[in-house]
Amino acid sequence: MKTIPLRQLVRQPTHVKRWTRAGETVRVTDNGRPLWTVRAADPPEVQPGREQAIDEVLQETLGTTAGGISAASLLEESRR
User: Fold this and answer.
1) What is each CA distance from 9 to 12, 35, 73, 80, in whole angstroms?
2) pLDDT tens, position by position, for the chain (80 residues)?
3) In this structure, are strands 2-5 and 33-38 parallel, antiparallel, or unpaired?
4) Residue 23: which of 43, 50, 6 has the closest Cα?
5) What HEC string does 1-19 produce?
6) What distance, in Å, lies between the first and last C-alpha atoms of the chain?
7) Residue 58 CB: number of other CB atoms within 10 A?
8) Is the whole model's pTM more than 0.70, yes or no?
9) Gap between the Cα atoms of 50 and 59, Å rounded
């Protein structure tokens, strides 16, 4: 466990971010007294089948053909 003063946390938050990402626990002190303990958050739960459902929706969307109206023709019509 690393121990740092509150001032270092405020001035160098990237160090604490790097340490917690690496799995370290960081104790933040104020005038030598423990104030907070910072640790990495638990990874979010992965819902089974979610990625597959997203891929299916994307494939369905990509598989459809575009409408018969082009952006250029819409632009020309709006200028008239």
Assistant:
1) 5, 12, 57, 61
2) 999 999 999 999 999 999 999 989 999 999 999 999 999 988 778 788 888 898 899 888 887 776 778 888 888 888 87
3) unpaired
4) 43
5) CEEEEHHHHHHCHHHHHHH
6) 70
7) 10
8) no
9) 14
